[in-house]
Amino acid sequence: MSENAYTPRPEHHFTFGLWTVGNVGRDPFGEPVRSPISPVRIVEKLAELGAYGVNLHDEDLVPREATPQERDRIVREFRDALAKSGLKVPMATTNLFTDPAFRDGAFTSNDARVRRYALQKTMRSMDLGKELGAEVYVFWGGREGTETNAAKDPREAMKWFRDALDFLCEYSIAQGYGYRFALEPKPNEPRGDIYLPTIGHALAFITTLAHPAMVGLNPEVAHDTMAGLDFAHGVAQALDAGKLFHIDLNDQKPGRYDQDFRFGAVDPKGAFFLVKLLEDAKWNGMRHFDAHAYRTEDERGVWDFAAGCMRTYLILKEKAARWNADREIQQLVGALRSRGSDGRAERLTFSKERAEQLKSQPLDLAAIRSEGYAYERLDQLTMEILLGVR
Ligand code: GLT
Ligand code: MN
Ligand code: MN
Known about the structure:
- The chain contains 15 helices and ten strands.
- The chain is an alpha/beta fold.
- It has an eight-stranded parallel β-sheet with strand order 8-6-4-3-2-1-10-9. Strands 5-7 form a two-stranded antiparallel ribbon.
């Protein structure tokens, strides 16, 4: 495949958050190492690099203390930059974690005033997102959790969380916004433990909402990796449920703080199976990178980081196509698909007759017990594609 195949273009639907490339490298032990980059410059640079869009929290664009006049000017300048560059804003979200008011959570704070403030701030931010054309609205409940369960009854917290989402679904409907809400699970950090810690928790919670069809998932590689889970499995389950509304791509070593590394930087094999899953499923959502440059970098390193995320995705996409076209691999896969059946995709559906027939069907258990699956060969061939010798 030509070098061109690795060149990001808008049709690939790559997006970044203002907060990702705009990350100034602050951490719990150190001050910022980079100067803020203006939203207008971020728009120009992302367009130049071939991205499709830019996403934002309310405060990434409009400072909390801005007057209405300042807000209007900032939004106007940003919209001008978008129009000039052709960049879109497919997703918006609310910062419900920086303000000390949210130290005990936003929708699940013990303080009823904070729960009201969280709704107020989210509605205003939904208004802003709509002004910019956003269709997906993300809820990352970073502060929704506890350090001690003495603080609140987690059942009560679930009720508050549900009330807030039901309220905001109604708001989106009443305003005619047509948002699709995407919950973003994370097990911990910045809270000791965060509510709705995994994809599975979030999927189950959605079924208890007043408007379950409006609400889906925004899973993130790093978050499931922090929880020690296989991210592709969680994403597959969200796809299967029709709930993959958005995705946060990045990378992470297990057992560490939330690293938000460049996509594919730690576990290229995991990234490969993720890309393969999304591409095989023909998933049409945004490929959003929720990651940031190493703290060692200056602004040049930030753009190297952004270009690297997209290039790695496209390289892995080409590797997935190669895997799907590889004769030996496909022979092995074909043998697996027809293993123990006549080759037609067999599905076991119940009928009384089928159950009776199955109960008395003789099965060659000795053969079943002794035959290997050839996964060593299959995985080695996969590795050879990934390592570039096949
Ligand atoms: C924050 C967090 C991310 C969320 C962002 C959306 S903010 O950077 O670490 O995982 O996706 O609120
Ligand atoms: Mn993260
Ligand atoms: Mn994220």
